Amino acid sequence: DKKMLLKAGVDKAKYLISVCGNDGTNAEVAVNAREISSKNKDKKLTCFAHIFNPQLCHLLREREIETGQMNIFKLEFFNIFDIGARSLLIDYPPFSEDDKFIKSQPHILIVGVGRMGESLVFHAATEWEKMYSKFNKKLRITVIDKIAKCKKELLYLRYPKLERICDITPLQIDVNSPDFQCADFLFDENNRCNITRIYICLDNDSLALSTALTLNQFIRNQNIPIVVRMISDTGLATLLRAEDKNKSHFKNIYAFGLLERTCQPNLILGETKELPTEI
């Protein structure tokens, strides 16, 4: 409430970052901060409010731009899954800038299309359009999820031009099922693996790592990167940084610690300066 914000010194602060576990709470913090700021004409406050749903976050950002900002108060919305997807694709690019690579038709596999997986599709498509639209080819993306077909339709509804940029193949498979464990989806009719990058975006770190290991046993000798989104760089993620990794079962598997790579003031402050390119 306002009393708590005043006790925390929000009337003297330059920045306020609200990362409560509920979107409504973060919105309430922002509203209260705006009211406090309106009574303090000598101090400008920028409030950053976390919104868990990436699509809602984008819509709220646009609304703030359209409605304008007070000179003494600025409200910005951010989403760690959106920041995380951008950071992940910088660390582990979905395709090469080499023209020779483009001729081989990049093919991305994303396992788990939750908040992070959806943001990965969005930003990979954005990068593809910016860098390779001249090739007049669609980016191939295969998504695996329990409700993959529904996820695909939602992606096309939320981002209308996505269908023009990407060819999304939805595979409605449970990662614990025999269909997934045999991994036939990795290979074409000639039994060749045409996947060039794999991103695992499951909510459970243990399940995510076991999923990566399952896929890796089929393609270990093909040097196809498998990036596993994990909550943190600690715990299970430390297994993927072993010194003898090249000789281990974890070869080609890389951990991406979401919290370490997103919950940093410089990333949050920088993230909200520009809206993602809408596609």
From TrEMBL:
Record-linked Pfam families = TrkA_N
Q: Which organism does this record belong to?
A: marine sediment metagenome
Q: What is this protein called?
A: RCK N-terminal domain-containing protein
InterPro entries listed in its UniProt record: RCK_N
| RCK N-terminal domain: residues covered | 1-62
